[in-house]
Batch of 2 targets.
Target 1
Amino acid sequence: MLIVIALGGNALLERGQRPDAAIQRRHVRRAARALAPLAAEHRLVICHGNGPQVGVLALESQSDASLSRPYPLDVLTAQTQGMIGYWLVQELTAAGVDRPVAALVTQTVVDDRDPAFHTPTKFIGPDYSREEAAALAARYRWSVAADGPRWRRVVPSPEPGRVVELDTVRTLIDRDTIVVCGGGGGAPVAADASGRLSGVDAVVDKDLTAAYLALALGAHRLLVLTDVPGVIRGYGTPQAEPIRAIDVDELTRLRFPAGSMGPKVEACQRFARASGHPAAIGALADAADVLAGRAGTTITRAPRRPGGRPAHSSPASTGPNQAAHLLEDPLWTR
Ligand code: ADP
Ligand code: MG
């Protein structure tokens, strides 16, 4: 199978942990060990997050007195693609993956009139107390929001359009290469009137970019691996209860927070709905079990036509890209 994996930035740097390189590399090593068994059997595209990491770089840039202005987030996202991609390439190989692994710096086209520019939702950087967050917001003119009980900086997160380097990704997959791409959602770029692309100050959600990649590449599965065991109904309440399997339509009726579980659920819905293949959300450590449906939350689309073909074809099938029609949709073709 071709599997697109969305790998959580928060699973590579736990909340409250020092962002030291050695600590992050240890997490990447653990991630690589969890992914190596999948790499032995399947073709993989890995799309990592960068919320904690891009936040570290943004803080450094903001406090660098030699700069006349901090580096924009598209540039910092490209930097995190290099850093995390480099770690993943090394650690996947060290974990016994015996195929080439390549990390690509990729760009994601966004609409610079996306309403998301007026309502920041994407959490970046460390968490703070409410008072600390308010002080930083005043000092650096940040937007801040509650991420669970703690507060974090939030930045605009426009919808991903297309991934500029899609054909290169395809070429590498066809050459049996594991591809790390779309990191941090991809460096966001917008086209001017003449079609020229240039960077914008935002961070795209990598879960949505992963859904785009999964559909555009005709993947058989989308796996969203993070720091919780799956989707929880009534999260944070005494009635909290894990969801093992759910139909896309039923999932639509539930509500999830923007900037964390919201985009994961949305990504899985888009993929399952358009492709008919299952998507799953679960803990990084359980990667193989999440793929097998033994752990995490599996999201499926019920068969559409009574007596028709099942909702998802056999895992081994490599038919035409069922999602091709979706790429005509304005959401993906901006
Ligand atoms: P990642 O870096 O993997 O993208 P996020 O922080 O964006 O991680 O999303 C995962 C977080 O979503 C979890 O750590 C959890 O705190 C939060 N979350 C919010 N609602 C839910 C829910 N209903 N079920 C599970 N986790 C949830
Ligand atoms: Mg996230």
Note: The pocket of adenosine-5'-diphosphate (ligand 1) is lined by residues 8-11, 49, 51, 148, 226-228, 231-232, 235, 256-257, 260-261 (CB under 6 Å).
Target 2
Amino acid sequence: MKKLPEINDESSRPIGVFDSGVGGLTVVKELNRLLPNEKIIYFGDTGRVPYGNKSKETIVHYSLQVAYFLMKKKIKMLVVACNTASSVSLPTLKRHFHIPIIGVIDPGAKSAMETTRNNKVGVIGTLGTVRSNAYKKALRKIKTSVKVFQDPCPLFVHLAEDGWNRNRIAQMVADEYLKPVKKMDVDTLILGCTHYPLLKDVIQKSVGKKVVLIDSGRETAKEVKNILAKKGLLSTKKMNEKNHSIFYVSDFPHKFKEVSQRFLSKDLKHVHKVIL
Ligand code: DGL
């Protein structure tokens, strides 16, 4: 019998997600929760992490390389799960590729503005994210009078990667970093880095129960769902062993697998090392 031609069903294509390393898995976790039928192709640039202390030019260059790799996998949408890359690379990526592309900054800013009552919002992130003022600009675009206080917390990335996210050391580091934030009397604090949701407990303890923590990853997953629904691109296929998500990294897969346990709370079977 003659084989029928394959129908090009755009909605069954995967969603591309990338981060400088494992941190973007916090976004994947939210995507899996909200969109269980979606196949994800993830790229973690583990060979070049961290992005947070690199120049804008370097981060844009890396982001373009990763995006080209994912485009070849015929993704239907690109999610820049890295706050640092979202802060500086988004306009360039949007100019280069013509599929829906979103970052984590706008969804996080929108949620913070819906939450704040005293009009004072804190932002913690990498040096790159803070220096770019991306969150500040996104918040001010929503409400010009909002008072924004930004604070870089670079050590949090290493604590999260090493699983030191709930111990005494993590609490001490959080208390020290967040002293200035506490002084500013913010009632809403954006966790402006993929790794920070893992330190939620210690951060909350440092700033006090009254401050609402905004997880940009969670907000981004909601936005991905909205965009795909609007464009009629939501997948209706059930995920199974055949159309499972795939993870690519630019350095040892075993380290990524080990750390991803802590981020996703499940074993990753398909992690491949690639050279871009
Ligand atoms: N993924 C980065 C971010 O969200 C944190 C790690 C890095 O500096 O590359 O900003």
Note: The chain is about 45% helix and 15% strand.
